[in-house]
Amino acid sequence: MAVGHVVAIIGATGAAGQTTLRILEERKFPVRELRCFASERSVGTTVTFKGEPILIRRVEPGAFRGVEIAFCSAGAAQSREFAPMIVKAGAVVIDKSSAFRMDPAVPLVVPEVNAHAAKKHAGVLACPNCTTIVTVMPLKPLHDAGRLRRVIATSYQAVSGAGVNGIEDLRQQTRAWARGEAITPTHFTHQIAFNLIPAIDRFGDNGYTGEEMKLVNETRKILEVPDLAIAPTAVRVPVFTSHSIAVNAETESKITVERARELFSRFPGLRLWDEPGENRYPMPIIVEGQDDCFVGRVREDPSHPSALNFWVVGDQLRKGAATNAVQIAELVTR
């Protein structure tokens, strides 16, 4: 009898979908059969899994018969349309979009942080926003040790967070600059090459962007602290991969720098990278391709007796999306 699960990936040709294929292979997730889906323009093309070409199919009801685990790596609109159909066919859906994250009936899961939540699903589990995942990883051990009271988080987000179009826009703008040509943005609102854009997503009535409010609402849900005070800022930076977050965390009980380093070093999925005297601290170029989130620059806040500052970096295509989703699949198939 064949061993493993029948797995589907929706959005298999995108950046997150491609990374999911790699993570499934790297983590040796038991795949007995793989079905890949993408937009109409990709139907009939192939992606590669374990050295074999996998045909891209059209999303339609009959295509999911027998599927056990389905990773949705498309947009929120597609997830809302497809997920009920896939669940009805008998599969568990692990969705990476924002479609179900704040649905009270859908677990929002970071396995190292709240694995218990995965047990309560009714067919759909949600992956948090990539920035939320990277940020909440070091917040969890601090919360367990001293209970968080307030968080200030400023994220410096790589262009691959905007998908393949974001990557290509930075690449083309950089080439145009090198050739001395005019730079014309094709995806981002402004020039991203050699620039910072302090706005990701649309602005709300409160002056914060959708991306910033995701960090607020999702962190509260994951940590199960609905009134946690969080002040976010999201900035797009000219980096291809890995999001960086500068965090100020205030706790009810004081946590020293030494204790925080100990907590971080022991927490699964976190790597303490904090030797400032040796110029050793997390940077996107170091963290790219890693599943762990790297934390460093740990120091006391001189303006508050019970607050710490630190810097955390995570590959948002891996732990921020694909790796987290595959870890959820590992939880629900145990």
Descriptive overview:
The structure is a single chain. The protein has 334 residues and is α/β, with parallel strands linked by helices. It has nine helices and 13 strands. The protein folds into two domains: 5-128 and 321-332, 3-Layer(aba) Sandwich (Rossmann fold), CATH 3.40.50.720; 132-316, Dihydrodipicolinate Reductase, domain 2, CATH 3.30.360.10. It has helices spanning 15-26, 76-88, 111-114, 130-146, 164-178, 210-223, 257-266, 284-287, 318-332, and strands at residues 5-10, 31-37, 46-49, 52-57, 69-72, 92-95, 124-126, 148-157, 229-236, 243-251, 270-272, 293-300, 307-314. Helix 4 (130-146) runs parallel beside helix 6 (210-223) and helix 4 (130-146) crosses helix 9. The chain is globular, with a radius of gyration of 20 Å.
Short description:
The protein has 334 residues and is α/β, with parallel strands linked by helices.
Helices, strands, pairings?
Blueprint: E1 5-10, H1 15-26, E2 31-37, E3 46-49, E4 52-57, E5 69-72, H2 76-88, E6 92-95, H3 111-114, E7 124-126, H4 130-146, E8 148-157, H5 164-178, H6 210-223, E9 229-236, E10 243-251, H7 257-266, E11 270-272, H8 284-287, E12 293-300, E13 307-314, H9 318-332
Parallel strand pairs: 1-2, 1-5, 2-4, 5-6, 6-7, 8-9, 11-12
Antiparallel strand pairs: 3-4, 8-10, 10-13, 12-13
Low-confidence stretches: none
Largest sheet: 7 strands, mixed
Please tell me what the overall shape is.
Answer: globular
Mean pLDDT, rounded to whole units? 96
Query: Roughly how many Å apart are the termini?
Result: 19 Å
Q: Beta-sheet strand percentage?
A: 15-25%
Q: What is the CATH third-level topology name of the largest domain?
A: Dihydrodipicolinate Reductase, domain 2
Any guess at the CATH architecture of the largest domain?
2-Layer Sandwich
Tell me how many strands there are: 13
Order of the strands making up the biggest sheet: 3-4-2-1-5-6-7
**Helix content range:** 25-40%
Return Rg in Å.
Answer: 20 Å
Number of domains: 2
Instruction: Tell me the series of helices and strands, N- to C-terminal.
Output: EHEEEEHEHEHEHHEEHEHEEH
* Distinct helical segment count: 9
- CATH class label of the largest domain: Alpha Beta
What structural class do you assign from the helix and strand content?
alpha/beta
